Structure formats: C-alpha cells, structure tokens
Amino acid sequence: MSQWSQVQQLEIKFLEQVDQFYDDNFPMEIRHLLAQWIESQDWEAAANNEAMAMILLQNLIIQVDEQLDRVSQEKNLLLIHNLKRVRKLLQGKYHGNPMHIAVIISNCLREERRILAAASMPVQGPLEKSLQNSVVSERQRNVEHKVSAIKNSAQMTDQDVKYLEDLQEEFDFRYKTIQSLEQNDKNSALIKQEMLALQAMLNTLDYKRKEVLSKIGRVIHEIDMLMSNMLTEELLDWKRRQQIACIGGPLHGGLDQLQNCFTLLAESLFQVRRQLEKLDELLTRLTYDGDPIPVQRPQLLEKVNFLLYNLFRNSFVVERQPCMPTHPQRPMVLKTLIQFTVKLRLLIKLPELNYQIRVKATIDNNRRFVLCGTHVKAMNMDESANGSLSVEFRHLQPKEMKTSAGSKGNEGPHMVTEELHSISFETQVCLYGLTINLETSSLPVVMISNVSQLPNAWASIIWYNLSTNDPQNLSFFNNPPAATLSQLLEVLSWQFSSYVGRGLNSEQLNMLAEKLMGQQVSYNDYQLSWAKFCKEHLPGKSFTFWVWLEAILDLIKKHILPLWIDGYVMGFVSKEKERILLKDKTPGTFLLRFSESNLGGITFTWVDQLENGEVTFHSVEPYNKGRLSALPFADILRDYKVIMADNVPENPLKYLYPDIPKDKAFGKHYSCQPDEVSKPSDGGGKGYVPSVFIPVSKILNDSTEPHSPSDLLPMSPSVYAVLREHLSPTAIETAVSCKLSHS
C-alpha cells in the first residue's frame, strides 16, 4: 500500500494535520494524482543537488502533462483548470530554483510519515499535545477576528475624517464669504443669522474633531492591547513550534496567518498616521480656543510611531533556521567551510518594501568565527513561492579564525560540541519618514570541523530545544538543566519518524526508558540529566546512550529502511523480554532486535524445541553495517542456514513474530526470488557459474549460540543443491568445519 493510501485511511483529526501543509506551494491534487510516482523519487537527495532537482522538476511537469491529457479526454473541466494552474506554478515559481520544490515535497512526505507514525501510537506525547492545545487554537481565531475588527474601525475613521474635512471646507467657505462683505452688509439681520449658523457649525466641528480623535485613540489602544498580549503570545508560540519542528517534531505552520495579522496592523497604523497628518493639515487652516487637535495629536502620533517600531521589530523573524543542505534533518549543526542556508522573513508585507531592505548576516561577537560568502542580500517578494517578503542566504559558510599564535583555536576533532553560537541579522527599514533598525538571531548553533562530531552536536541541539524556549541562551551548557523523561522519549521517537520514516511505539519507548533509568521505571515525571543522556557510558559499555541510539538510526537509514518502515523490526527489546515473547510460539518463530552491546548492530533470535519438549532460543551474532553492505538483510533472512549436530543445513527462520510467514513479510524486499537464481547449466558471464553468498552458522550440541554469521560461503544455491544430492550430511559438516577452523 502506498504511503498516500495509508494517509487517506487516517482519522479526521490526523487528516486535518495533513491538510495544513498542502497549499499552493505543492497542491494536494498533484500529491493525489501522482502518488506512486512521487513516492518513488528521491526528493531528499534532490533537495541538495540542483542538477537532480531540475531533472525531477522537468519529469514532474511531464507527469502533470500526461494527467492533463487524460482528464482532457474525460472532459473534467474543474480538474483541467486546476492542472493548468499547477503546471503554470511549477514552471513559473520553481524553474529558477528547482531545489525549492524538492525541499517542499521532501518535507511533505516526511511529515506524512510522522503523522502516520503518530497515528499508530496509543497516546499522543506531552509535547505534541501542548502544541495542539485548544486554547491556543481559540486564541489564534480571536487574534484574526480582532485584527479584522481593528482594520474595519480604521477604515470607518477614514470616513469620519473625510466628513470632518468636508464640514471644515464648508465652514471655511461660508466664513470667508462673510469676511469679504462690506461693513454695512455685515450688520444686516441675514448676516447675523448666518453668523449664528457659523457658530453652530464651529461647535459641530469641535465635537467632530473630539470624536475623531477619540476614535483614533480607541483604535490605537486596541492595537496596543492586541500587540502586548495575544499577538505577542502567538509569535512566541510560533517560535516554540519552530524549535520543536527543528528537532523532528510536527512541522510548524501559522506564519502566513501571523504575516496577515502583522500586515493588517501595520496598514491600520499607517492609516491612523495619515489621519493624524490630515488633522494637522486641518489645524493649520483652522484653530480656536479649546481646539483638541494641538493637545491630543502629538501624543497619539508618538504612540503610533512607538507601536510601528515595535511591530516592525517583532516582524523580523528567522523563517528557516541555519542548515547544511547535506544534512537537512540536522539543522543548526554547521561544519566549518561548508555552506549552509538560512531564510528570514519580514511579516509586514508591503509592496513599497520590495527590494528596499538589505539584510546583513554576521556570527556572534567572540571573533572566533567569521562568515564567508554573500552575507548581504535584499529582501524581496519574488523568490518565495508564497510571495512573502523574505531573503534566503544560500552560500554562507563559517570559518574559524586563526589565533595570534598562527594556529586555529579548537579546529579539529576536539572542537567542543556543547559550545553554542548565534547567527545574527540586521537591517534598516525607511518608510514614510520613519527609520527603524531591525535585528534578529537564529536559534543557537553548534560548530563542528569533522562529520564525526555531528552526532554529539545534534544531541546538544536536541537537548537545548527540548529544555528551553529561550532563543539566545548561549551559556546554556554551563549548567544544563535536566529534562523530563517522558518528553525526551517523545523527541527520541521523532528522531525515528523524521529520519527513518517510522516512530517508536510504547513498548519500544519503555525499553529505551529502562536503558536510561534502569528496570521498571515510571517515567512520567522522571528527570534525566544531560550527562546521563550523552556523556556517561552505559553500564559495562564503552559508549554513551546517545552514541548507541545514533548508530541504530544510521544502520536503519542505510541498510534496513524498508523493513523498518513496514514495521517488521521490533528493534528495541531486551534479551529477557524477547524470550518471554517467543517461548510459547511455534518453533521457527523469530524477531529482529538491535544489539545492546555492538554499535549499529542488528540480530535475530528464534525459538526451537528439542525432542524432549524443552524450549531453546538461538541468537545470531549481530550484523553490522560492514556485513550488511555485502549482503542485504532481507536476503540474509531468506538464505540463512544452520548446521546442528549431524543434521542437514536448514533455515530455522519460519515465522516473523508473532506468526507472519517469513516470505510474506520480507518477500518483496528480496533482491531476487529463489527461482530467479541461475542454475549451473545456465552458465554465467564468460562461462562462469553465478554464485551468491549464503550465511551459515553451526550450533554444537552443548551450545545454543550459533557461530559468527560472518562465515558467508560463496556458494550458489544450485551448487549447494547438487552437493546435497551427492554428499552425506557428515561430509558437508566436515567441509564447513574445515572452513571454520581456517577462518
């Protein structure tokens, strides 16, 4: 079943999450129509390779054209219209930056996998639950409603100012008309009556001036209250969601909604500013004793300018945190002399600012590192698919400065992976007579000089963003706080769902909790130290918990990914637990688990039954990435043979726990089917008989543990079949034993 088919079968609450990240950047119609093709492409690799991304973009357009031809024949007018729109989008938006569409599709597929993993979890984790708080959603709706109401109020006040202007012009005309009359004419009864009318008009003008100023004051107060409370909270929540997304959590949305709110508020404030300017203009043409404009206008204008300054300062955000394109799922870890990307956005989207704001990028002020590459760029609305006012730096790279002695500071394998740095950005906005200096910074980053430091650096990023919402605590690791174990386990599950497409279930998480804290822990409120997580060796081992877990992630990603995604690798289960699970199962039932003593190792254990009814268990020596590079793990499970005493070698693996026939579980992952293996009579290249590696282990009578699976005999299945026809089991055993004794 395709990933998209699984998504469509989710409950409505999960489908709503899927709906959030499909928009005009990558329409859901294309995801639906091209599901199989999209899932068969390597978008993650294309996100870091422009040539590959361009080829995939061209092929995507070809696929859209084929769908367009099909629906044209079916005369589906709505779908024809949508596909033409999508084709125009793909050609227009992404032709100059094909890697952008690759990043978008890769992120969408990754988020689908995360949601599928979350749907399979029995309960939602505490962090994810807090991010989807109903109170937060209600506040978002309230903010949007209040912003809309403020915009309407500002527009209504515009009409009041226009009425006031018309009334004053009429008063001015009638007053000047009387002033132009001769003195004798001014004493007439008609003129006296007109003077009384003018006095009434002046009273009305005074009332209307006070009314307009009062309405302007209310609009300013409403904006002030909204900015000080709900809008600030919304922005802080978005930044927290971004932190969580950076360490594998749910993709954060809401920035477009925030941009809409910030932009409408800025437009309202500039509208109020123009209204105050109009009042100043009216003041120069007419004033009187008790005139409210010269008293109230300066204070209101000062407040408007203050709010504009704060609004602009808060609107300058890092939309996408620093990340090396070579490691898209390890943001905020930067390697010296390797390019990274970072994207900034101004949430106030005004056409007057397009290409008018130049942003400068720098690194923190300790003078240990400098940024090389293009570090000054102009914000514009053309590069982003959604037309936001943003700038993306794609060619920055950190360089470590030489010390006064001529040698580099900590460059090399001993660079401290707990040392935090910050990428800072500054710019200046000049608009309508205002000059506003803006500054913002990335979340803390860790510098490395060698990829071998990446695992520990990533552990630092995880711990920081899990433990604090402070965006700039660069001294955090001077005294790192403990983390709640339940939240840490949730984040560890995210590492698997985001990096290898399937998260961890409660049983797997329980095993990790026991690994960290000991047997039978209740980890709801348990506090775990940073040292326990990443610095102290596991009991009796030469490595830390995090190094062990990272090696497993690497093993899955490179060697057993399809098996992991299908859910056939139990993985995290102790030796004691596996025996409890297998003891009552049919002989030949096996399960797959990760080694607790070998870094990046996977083994399998099967249950057997002796003639006297005694249940026995056999575990093969773990396979590591070296062995799995030579032979796919699915093929190992298919071809594995065991020699026990005088018996003929046979495959003991029959059923994957609990009772799935082995070939049903792994058949689609075999490199070739058994009947596709060449026979000796078929011949091989240049007259050679094709051969395959067959993993064989020998179990002695007094042992339940097979010999090392590294003894892979280069023997074709057909040759092995011939040997079985012509040689006795004893002879075969003698030959294998001879092989083992000389290995």
TrEMBL record:
<dbReference type="GO" id="GO:0003677">
    <property type="term" value="F:DNA binding"/>
</dbReference>
<keyword id="KW-0727">SH2 domain</keyword>
<dbReference type="GO" id="GO:0007259">
    <property type="term" value="P:cell surface receptor signaling pathway via JAK-STAT"/>
</dbReference>
<dbReference type="InterPro" id="IPR000980">
    <property type="entry name" value="SH2"/>
</dbReference>
<dbReference type="GO" id="GO:0042981">
    <property type="term" value="P:regulation of apoptotic process"/>
</dbReference>
<dbReference type="InterPro" id="IPR036535">
    <property type="entry name" value="STAT_N_sf"/>
</dbReference>
<dbReference type="InterPro" id="IPR012345">
    <property type="entry name" value="STAT_TF_DNA-bd_N"/>
</dbReference>
<dbReference type="GO" id="GO:0060333">
    <property type="term" value="P:type II interferon-mediated signaling pathway"/>
</dbReference>
<keyword id="KW-1017">Isopeptide bond</keyword>
<dbReference type="Pfam" id="PF01017">
    <property type="entry name" value="STAT_alpha"/>
</dbReference>
<dbReference type="InterPro" id="IPR013799">
    <property type="entry name" value="STAT_TF_prot_interaction"/>
</dbReference>
<dbReference type="Pfam" id="PF02864">
    <property type="entry name" value="STAT_bind"/>
</dbReference>
<dbReference type="Pfam" id="PF02865">
    <property type="entry name" value="STAT_int"/>
</dbReference>
<keyword id="KW-0832">Ubl conjugation</keyword>
<keyword id="KW-0539">Nucleus</keyword>
<dbReference type="InterPro" id="IPR008967">
    <property type="entry name" value="p53-like_TF_DNA-bd_sf"/>
</dbReference>
<dbReference type="GO" id="GO:0051093">
    <property type="term" value="P:negative regulation of developmental process"/>
</dbReference>
<dbReference type="Pfam" id="PF00017">
    <property type="entry name" value="SH2"/>
</dbReference>
<keyword id="KW-0238">DNA-binding</keyword>
<dbReference type="GO" id="GO:0051607">
    <property type="term" value="P:defense response to virus"/>
</dbReference>
<dbReference type="InterPro" id="IPR013801">
    <property type="entry name" value="STAT_TF_DNA-bd"/>
</dbReference>
<keyword id="KW-0488">Methylation</keyword>
<keyword id="KW-0007">Acetylation</keyword>
<dbReference type="GO" id="GO:0005654">
    <property type="term" value="C:nucleoplasm"/>
</dbReference>
<dbReference type="InterPro" id="IPR048988">
    <property type="entry name" value="STAT_linker"/>
</dbReference>
<dbReference type="Pfam" id="PF21354">
    <property type="entry name" value="STAT_linker"/>
</dbReference>
<dbReference type="InterPro" id="IPR001217">
    <property type="entry name" value="STAT"/>
</dbReference>
<keyword id="KW-0804">Transcription</keyword>
<comment type="similarity">
    <text>Belongs to the transcription factor STAT family.</text>
</comment>
<dbReference type="InterPro" id="IPR015988">
    <property type="entry name" value="STAT_TF_CC"/>
</dbReference>
<dbReference type="InterPro" id="IPR013800">
    <property type="entry name" value="STAT_TF_alpha"/>
</dbReference>
<dbReference type="InterPro" id="IPR029839">
    <property type="entry name" value="STAT4_DBD"/>
</dbReference>
<dbReference type="InterPro" id="IPR035856">
    <property type="entry name" value="STAT4_SH2"/>
</dbReference>
<dbReference type="InterPro" id="IPR046991">
    <property type="entry name" value="STAT4_CC"/>
</dbReference>
<keyword id="KW-0963">Cytoplasm</keyword>
<dbReference type="GO" id="GO:0000981">
    <property type="term" value="F:DNA-binding transcription factor activity, RNA polymerase II-specific"/>
</dbReference>
<dbReference type="GO" id="GO:0005737">
    <property type="term" value="C:cytoplasm"/>
</dbReference>
<protein>
    <recommendedName>
        <fullName>Signal transducer and activator of transcription</fullName>
    </recommendedName>
</protein>
<keyword id="KW-0597">Phosphoprotein</keyword>
<keyword id="KW-0010">Activator</keyword>
<feature type="domain" description="SH2">
    <location>
        <begin position="564"/>
        <end position="666"/>
    </location>
</feature>
<dbReference type="InterPro" id="IPR036860">
    <property type="entry name" value="SH2_dom_sf"/>
</dbReference>
